[in-house]
Every structure is written in structure tokens, then in C-alpha cells.
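ok so dumb question maybe but i'm new to this and my supervisor (M.) told me to 'just get the structure for RNA helicase' and walked off. so i did the thing. is this what she meant?? sequence i used:
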Amino acid sequence: MSSFTDLGVPARLADVLAGLAIETPTPIQRATLPDALAGRDVLGRGRTGSGKTLAFLIPVVARLSGGPRARAGAPRALVLAPTRELAAQIDTALRPLAAAAGLTSCTVFGGVGQNPQVAAIRRGVDIVVACPGRLEDLLDQGHCSLAHVKITVLDEADHMADLGFLPAVRRLIGQTPAGGQRMLFSATLDKAIDTLVRQYLSKPAVHEADSAQSPVGTMTHHVLHVERDSRLPVLVDLSSAPGRTVVFTRTKHGAKALARQLNRAGVPTVELHGNLSQNARTRNLDDFQTDRATALVATDIAARGIHVDNVALVIHADPPADHKAYLHRSGRTARAGNSGTVVTLATTEQLREVTQLARAAGIKPTTTRVASADHPLLAALAPGTRSLTSPVTAVQAQTRAIPAQRQPAGEDRGTESTPRAGRRRGRRQAGNQSRGAGRATAARPAAATGSRSATATATASRSATASRSTTATTRAGSPDRQAGGSPAQGSGSRPTHSAAAFSARRGR
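this is what came out, is it supposed to look like this??
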């Protein structure tokens, strides 16, 4: 079997890889490295987790090393990625290789302030790893030029197409020199990607090591036929087993709600979706990678390119939208030759949909009816002693959302944007709900006890102390308050005023 040096990788880069315990090239690396190192345009297809990142990073670093220093505002290589998390992970994999070659790199994506990114580019950086939206903003503002880019890489090209990034990608590649090397890596190749290849790649070397539908011998697939009332207990049991678990939901709201439920059940859980600020997403992913949280509940934002070692179990709490999403979600486990288990929960109504999805994905899962969390199959799918922490000490998921109007300029458009809502309208609505809740609060306790004395006393009293006491008593006894109150009664909403207190103030 070939080594990295046999494929033409410079010895100092091979030494860096050996220090990272990466000594044997994967099939996609063996196929693409010779052509990429020779400067040819490359089209590489391989499933998620096949090693595509190093397949393009090694040639980028090798071909740039020894060249002229980067000019201010003019990078020498550009790597485009669809999501912030993937861009950050590409840069993490790049840094040790770049350091060995004396090169510099930086990331460019939205959700964070642009000033540090602008400063890095102005100092002169060899390799920029970017999401299309923010990079276009910096180009429009005159902070960056692509006129000196020697190598352009498009990673997860099919996901770019799914997110609607291809028009921006075309504009960006169009600003790079026509004679430069271009490499495109993708898990699948559909008509949109084929058009991109024909337009921008010159006589590319085409390599396919593992198709998206080629089976992973170390990955097992199961469908658990559950009813709705047993769904959460089954999720708690599976995710409380030893090892890391990634749970996928279809919506951001669903991810947030499920993370809260798992934390309350005692499973240390964090969430990852587009409604979180970038800092919260980074902290949550770090908590998961460092085992402060054992479960990660995510939307499809994490299904592409997010690499966390030793994920033992992937659970589709909500069946994915299509077979491609299923394959990419499942690719979070059984990576780099490791084994992994994929479980899909399906209610009776969803079972037919899941069966069709599995057929389209080219897999044959084992389907089992699971009536409760006591089913013996759960222990086989996720072996080990279940461990539940106190809900008080469980990891609290970072849930601070970025209001749309406060997002920094250049947010990488297309990655689960936050719904827009006017601040003024939201406040007025919250106030109206609070006042309505206050009127209901005053009436319901009196009706429940059959006594009007408390209200009459509050109305007749001219004392501010009596008014405040009656208001507090009324609020404490409100069924709305005991049940959690109106959504508008959280922090930051207008204070709730009871009818009794209002009458007392009018009588002063």
C-alpha cells in the first residue's frame, strides 16, 4: 500500500501527518494526490468521511511552499466551504501543515465581527478558507482581491448547490485568474455541479474513490418503529449510553426543544443550529468535542463536514428530508475505519417514508418495533451502563439567537438564516399579551375559590402596600403563572398588572 511520500507528498509534510498519527492515505487521497500535486485541475468524488479535506489541503500547501510572500489583501489560495463550522475545521486541519511550510491562513465567514478577518487579510495571508457570503461582502468593500489566487478549491460542492450558493461561487471563481489550478470535491455529482465543472475546470482529472451510496462496512443501520409517547424515553436511553451521540432533527425549534428535554432528563446535551450566534455554536461544539456534553442535537447544519472523533451513535430523531441528507447525517459516525451505529426513529405514519428513503440510499436497515425504553435491543445498539446526571448539573445548551437586524454584515447567506422580526412590533405584541394575561390572572383565582373578597378589598384600599400585596397574591395564585405563564412574560417583557391593582391605583 502506498505511503504519502510514495504519492509525491514532500517529506516535511509527511512528517507532520505522521505526528498526527496519519500514515496511510485513504482511497480518495491515493487517487487524487498525484494529479493535484502536479497542478492539474481535479474533480474528486467521495462519501462523507473519506478524507477529502487532506486530499486538497496537502497539494495546496505543497504547491505554495517556497513561493513569494502573499501581498496585503491578496491571498494566494482560496478554499470555499458551505458552512462556518466546516470552514473552521478545514482551517484547523490546515494549520499544522501550513506552519511546517511557513505559510499563513485565516477564515472568513459570517456570524462574527469582520474586523479581525479584514486585519488578517490586510497583513497578507497565503490561504483564505471562506464561506461565500462574507467573502463577497469583503470583496465589495474593497478589503480583499482574488487577482493573485493561484489555487482555488471548492469543498462540499453539492452542499453549496443545496444551499443556493452556486451563483455566489461562480462570481467568486470568476474573479480568480483563468490559468490557476482549480479543484472541486463533492460527495455527489448532480447536474448543477456538472455545469460548474464544465465551466471552470480545464480537462480535470476525475477520481471517484467511494460513491455516496457505497456501503460502509463498519456502519450498521436500524429503524426503530416507535409511537410518539415512547419517542423521548427511547432517545434518553440511547443517548445516556457511554460514548458520543449525535441526534438530528429537521427544524431549529425541534433541536432546541429536544436538547432542553434531554438536559432535563439528565443527559448532558448541547445544540447546534442556525439560530445560535457563532460564539454559541463554537462553544457548544467544543463542549461536545471535550466530553462536557455527551449528546449533540443538531439540524442538517452539522450533517456536512463536521468532524468529531469517536461518535459511536447517530440518531435520526426526525427522518431526514431525502436520502442524500440521510447519508450525510449518518456519515458523522464510522469515520476513518471506525465502527458506528445509525438509528432512525419512525412512527407508524413515517414508516413508509423511511422505507422509501432507505431504498433510495441503497441501504437495508433492520426494522424493529420498540414499545418502550425497556426493549433489549436498545442495550445492544448502545451498549454500556446508562449514566444520567442531575438535571441541575447537566450542560445547559447555548441558545442565544442573533436577531436578524443585528447580524453582522456579510453573514454567510444560506445557512439556516434567522427569521426576520421587527423589534418594535415584537415589543408591542409582548406588551399586549402581558396585559391580557394580567386581566386573566386577576379573574381566575377568584372564580376558582368562589370568593370575591380579595378583589373587593384591593379595590377599596387606598394603600399602595395593600395594592402591591394583592398584586403579588393574585399573581402567585394564577393558574397561568403556575403553568409557566404566557410566552411574553419572560425576561425583558413588560410587567404584568392585575385588574385589582389597577382599580386600587385608580382609587388613590
